[in-house]
Design a protein that fits this description.
Blueprint: E1 17-18, E2 26-27, E3 51-52, E4 61-67, E5 77-79, E6 82-86, E7 91-96, E8 102-107, E9 117-119, E10 122-126, E11 131-136, E12 142-147, E13 157-161, E14 164-170, E15 175-180, E16 186-191, E17 201-203, E18 206-210, E19 215-220, E20 226-231, E21 243-245, E22 248-253, E23 257-262, E24 267-273, E25 284-285, E26 289-293, E27 298-303, E28 309-314, E29 324-326, E30 329-333, E31 338-343, E32 349-354, E33 364-366, E34 369-373, E35 378-383
Parallel strand pairs: 3-29
Antiparallel strand pairs: 1-16, 2-13, 4-35, 5-6, 6-7, 7-8, 9-10, 10-11, 11-12, 13-14, 14-15, 15-16, 17-18, 18-19, 19-20, 21-22, 22-23, 23-24, 25-26, 26-27, 27-28, 29-30, 30-31, 31-32, 33-34, 34-35
């Protein structure tokens, strides 16, 4: 997805929600690597940890490409043997994950830069046309759509509240929304003081997300009420998504820092400084390490407990896309038009592929395959070896 600049806006005067309460306790998702054959939401799991279950082969080759015709900044997801993503042609696309063959295409009224969420046979995705859509994953038919008051750039996350599945998504209208997954009923809307760019993390019935108001927000998903807020101050606008593990949030901001915040204590545990450039990339979090891209043209790796630098790898342009850790490797794309695989331990380059156009999309890594979009309008699939006798994917019919 494209992470648009945060602008300083007049404060709205309240951080509180306008929300009815929901009955039933929220079910907390467990922190696990994404399932080996699934990558159903941005960063792979509800905590946004960016960890893939399966490792990558030593050598990757181009298996297939799918031509959307316009730039793909949306980060793809993979479920049920299909890959789903948005594009600048105003469409949500679905293709066969093995071959790239088109299956369906659903048209919206503007660019689709947000990553999808696939849940219970439905694709949930926002568009720059201000609507949040629920699309049947099998047929591409609309199930419902719900309005917000501005474009949606971040992905949705999900949680169980009693027997109800709830999807949570942010909008450029300064709000985080909760919708009933089955009906599209708006359950609550939590108001912030500036744009909500990223995807909220979900943990123990809480939604954790940053805003362009320079505040890390924690919201109860059953009521839409704020339970905590950590003010970072100054120009520390949060343009990306925060990963949340073990009570701590990890994210970068406009104040040229990547930080670890203890939500319970309401304090910054450590801060990693970049003298001249901000951080838009969302991190990948292992038991010991945090890996994230920077606008200083580097991929960075630090100690999870202290923020101490371990290594950094220089690309030729900024790294706004988010890395994925898979086994002992890290895979990511850069504005320099290349996809990279590095060793997790030392940051040494193992493989790269020159796409030739900026890669803002974050990869999905499923079953030893890498799926990623690029500004040349192609969705790329990289695998152990080139698929034999496969026709490249082409556009599907409109729906």
């Amino acid at each position: 997805m494209v992470l648009a600049p945060c602008l300083t806006l007049p404060l709205a005067g309240t951080l509180g929600p306008h929300a009815p309460e929901l009955s039933g306790a929220a079910t907390a998702p467990s922190r696990t690597a994404a399932a080996e054959e699934e990558w159903t939401l941005f960063r792979g799991d509800p905590h946004l940890s960016g960890i893939a279950a399966a490792g990558l082969p030593a050598e990757l080759d181009l298996a297939w490409t799918y031509d959307a015709g316009k730039a793909i900044t949306s980060s793809p997801v993979v479920a049920g043997g299909r890959v789903f993503f948005g594009a600048d042609d105003h469409a949500v696309h679905c293709a066969d994950a093995s071959t790239g063959a088109p299956i369906w295409k659903f048209m919206t009224e503007d660019l689709v830069e947000a990553p999808p969420l696939v849940l219970d046979g439905t694709v949930f995705i926002g568009s720059n046309d201000t609507f949040f859509y629920a699309i049947d994953a099998a047929s591409g038919e609309l199930r419902w759509k719900a309005p917000t008051m501005d474009k949606i750039l971040g992905g949705a996350n999900h949680v169980k509240v009693g027997e109800r599945s709830v999807v949570v998504v942010g909008s450029y209208d300064n709000r985080l929304y909760a919708f009933d997954a089955a009906s599209g009923e708006q359950l609550w809307a939590y108001e912030t003081d500036n744009y909500v760019n990223g995807t909220p993390a979900i943990d123990q019935g809480r939604a954790i997300f940053g805003g362009c108001d320079a505040i890390l927000h924690v919201v109860d998903v059953t009521t839409g009420k704020r339970t905590a807020a950590v003010e970072l101050g100054g120009d520390s606008h949060i343009a990306g998504s925060a990963a949340f593990l073990d009570g701590r949030a990890y994210f970068g901001h406009y104040g040229n820092q990547f930080v670890c915040v203890d939500v319970t204590k309401g304090e910054v545990v450590w801060a990693y400084d970049s003298p001249r450039q901000a951080f838009f990339s969302s991190p990948a979090i292992t038991d010991e390490l945090v890996v994230f891209g920077g606008r200083d043209r580097h991929l960075h790796c630090v100690r999870r407990g202290t923020g101490e630098p371990v290594w950094k790898f220089r690309t030729r342009r900024k790294v706004d896309g988010s890395p994925v850790v898979t086994g002992d490797a890290v895979v990511f794309g850069s504005d320099d038009g290349r996809m990279y695989v590095l060793g997790l331990e030392d940051g040494a380059e193992r493989w790269s592929y020159d796409i030739g156009e900026p890669v803002l999309s974050s990869p999905a890594v499923v079953g030893g395959r890498v799926y990623v979009g690029a500004n040349d309008g192609q969705l790329y699939c990289f695998a152990a070896e080139k698929a034999a006798d496969k026709e490249p994917g082409q556009e599907g019919g409109d729906r």
